[in-house]
Amino acid sequence: MPVVALITPEEKFAVGRKLDNIFADPSLKGYRIIGDRGLFDDLRGREDNDISNPKEPRVWRLLLERGGWIYLFRALPPNAKLDELPSVLAIQESEKGHIIIRSPEVSKTTSP
C-alpha cells in the first residue's frame, strides 16, 4: 500500500495538522461526535508520519479511493501482533478539492 500525504481544506476536516503551523491543533468548533471519543483522541496529534523510532514508526497509507471517499490507515509497526488491526479513516472528497500524494515509501526529508 502506498504511503500517502493528504492536503484538504481545513473547514471540511476535523483532524490534521496545519501546513503553516504543524504544532497548532485544529479547532473543533462546530463539530460533534457520536461513538468512541478515545478513537478520535488517539488520532489527534498523530496525524503526520514519524519514523524517528524504528520500533514504533507512524506511517499513513492509502487503502482505497472510491465513490468520492478516500480511505487511509496507519500502518502497523513491524512487531505488531497477528490479531492487531489498524483503524481506518474515511475522508469525503471536497468540492473545493484536495491534494493526495502517493509514494511507495516514506520521504527522506524531515519536517519541522
From TrEMBL:
It comes from Nostoc sphaeroides CCNUC1. It comes from the Bacteria. This is Uncharacterized protein.
